[in-house]
Amino acid sequence: MNVKLRICLQFVITFFYTNKRQAGTFFSQVRGYLLYCVSVYLGLALLTLSATPVQAQAAPPPAFDTIVAAATALAIPSVTQPLSPTNIPFAPGEILVGFHNQEGSRAAAATLSALSAQVVEQVTCPVQNLAKGGTYLLHVPEGQELAAIDQLQQDPNVAFAEPNALVYAADETLNAATAKVETPYNVRDPLYQDQQWYLQRINASRAWALAYASDGFQGAFANVQVAIIDSGIDVTHNEFRGRLLNGRNYVEPGTPPQDDAGHGTHVAGLMGAVTNNAEGIAGVAPKLKIDPRRVLKRVGDQIIGAIDDVAQAICDAADAGADIINLSLETSSDNTTLHNAVIYAASKGALLIAASGNSGASNFVSYPGAYNEVIAVAATTYSDRRASYSNAGQQVWLAAPGGERSRSMISTWPATVHCRDNTVGYCTSEGTSMAAAVVSGAAALIKSLRPSLNAEQIRQLLHEAVTPLNESTSAVGSGRLDLQKAVRLLLSGAVQPSTKSLVYTVAPGAAPFTATVRLDNPSLQVQSWRASLLTGSEWVQLQDAVEQQVSGTVTYGKPAYLTLIVTPTQLITGIYVSTLRVDALEPDNTVVSTYVDLNLSVVTSQPYHWYMPLVLQETAPPVTTEAYQWEIPAKAEDRVIYGMTDASTIPVTLPFTYTLRGLSYTTALITADGYVKFPDSSISPSLSNQCMPNLTDPAQAIYGWWANLDPSVQDAHVSTFAPAADRFVVEYENVASAAGISPSYRVSFQIVLYASGDVRLNYRDAPAFQGTLPQVTIGVEAHDGLFYNQVVCSDKTVQLGYLPTSQQSLLFKAQEDIY
To answer: How many CA atoms lie within 13 A of 140 on its CB side?
Structure first.
């Protein structure tokens, strides 16, 4: 039996080193054959080296002939890589050592002491021909594992020494995409949360997260030069430290362009205040050089300047290398001198961005915004409507937040200039000047991430990177700026399969079944792809294949699905492996390939259920999620059950004051459609799920499973209880999809509110879908949709994220994740 065991283990190791990409899935298929090895782990005991070994009661291993047959069926090639410890990923600071006999284990004590090795536990096994003195797990200093192994192997008392190789649990979708909470970009600047609603509205934090992400732009920003032709800038303000060029003062030549009005400083802060310096505000663009050119000055209550200075400043800024020229100023008349300057700057490659004007005209855009060479920006309010003062006209290219007096825009301000808020260093204002500055900041971010883009390309990208509004194009152009969309348009297209391995075990003669792989693209650029099966065509086929290939396109929010038809009916007992290749077809005709392994085991019986795949893949294991929990009341009578009908709502009083992103609630509204809304107010019973941020009702809610649900069906219940003083649970048990939803399903989940403001969503029974997701939204939204964390949104137009699985929990930290 000892020889047989060694052959079994050698077979497994050989397979790993000749089939690395398929290694993890292989183990989940032959887990029955490895039960004998698993029993080693089941028999662990904490002993000293001098203790008498304890014999574990292990189940008999599978028949050796079965193992040999499996090895033969796989036709494993010869080993091409030496089986040395350096090839094996292992637990840091841990090694396994076996001794020839008990006397030898004691005699090796000096060697172990010299290595600073400590006994953690003994690995017991009923047969130990190689290590009759016992096998032990030792702890050694991290980084010294291989050196310790080399030294121990020289000790004659040591039968073997080896790393403690890593193992992970396998499942039918190894490395599969799973539901997970978003990882936001957190802003530490103190005014961001409460006052910079305009950045939250344009999804700035999500744009920054993409810009810094390892699978995005990795924080690689090029410097962008932005000329601000305005009233100058506060050259001493901390928010511009290291970002200012010398600029020029056209009003008082020969002096620094110090701002005496506040307007230019305010505009500059919106664009480029240093983010995360723990002071004041965050600016739109993480990296830029500000070229302040003072052409305006305060005269009484007005901030005015002359056309000749503006025109000269435009030309000088272009000659100085400006990538972007911001013109948060306006005049009501066309002017040849001004237009010629604009044409000159555009010819030099500068992108010019201007305010549409603040007179509230319905069919007139002020100059220079009205010129074709300039992007004219309209202003929107907190509620995403065109501001009443914002000029409209066919020249309006897009809109951005400009605020209104009740919800104005906070930004930098000269300390020596009076602020209407009676504050120092920061002040509020509103206008199309502010909207233009926000767009200039967005253009600077785009240019810094893609320096090769020219002015016209950035202009077109800004036109596309918007959230459409229920307004005319003359009022808001193509829509309100969405910075996240802008960055996603910059991302290179890619094809991301939902899993890298599919594993199935069936009995002989099993009926055909289908397996689905979803393809996603993080970019809003359309990505072409094609897929083909490399092997296994006799038992697996690609649905809708033409000449054994399937092709299509994929973009962010619009995934593609590959359906594999698996036919095991005629297969004999054994292990079958097929590989699906997915090619991303790049515009330059290059091909980037990824692979999905399909592993099928046909077995007569499955008495063993152990999973033990050694992880030798070159990819990381799946991201772990919050440990699964399912809350229960301390006493059955603590649960309150509601007789809810389809589309009904129930107001409840919370057992504590619940604070979500700075707003406190004592009541909530439980809906039949799987979410809890704040505060207690009526909502439309026919409201269908939407993606976040949601600018209409419900706007602040926790979406456990926002869909068209019916809790009145048989065996379904909606209830609440407080399992402890610090949390409150809303439970949806066995709730069904509403009539007419196909395919129908049932779902059981909990929405857990913590007194700390945290939220946890628990899923006891979640439906699984192959292919297109049902309409559903999962996540948390706060503060009129300004802060949110979206796990899933599948509505009539997009599909984002992956559904939770049964026995999964999602935790949202109030101040870290809901952003």
So the answer is: 29
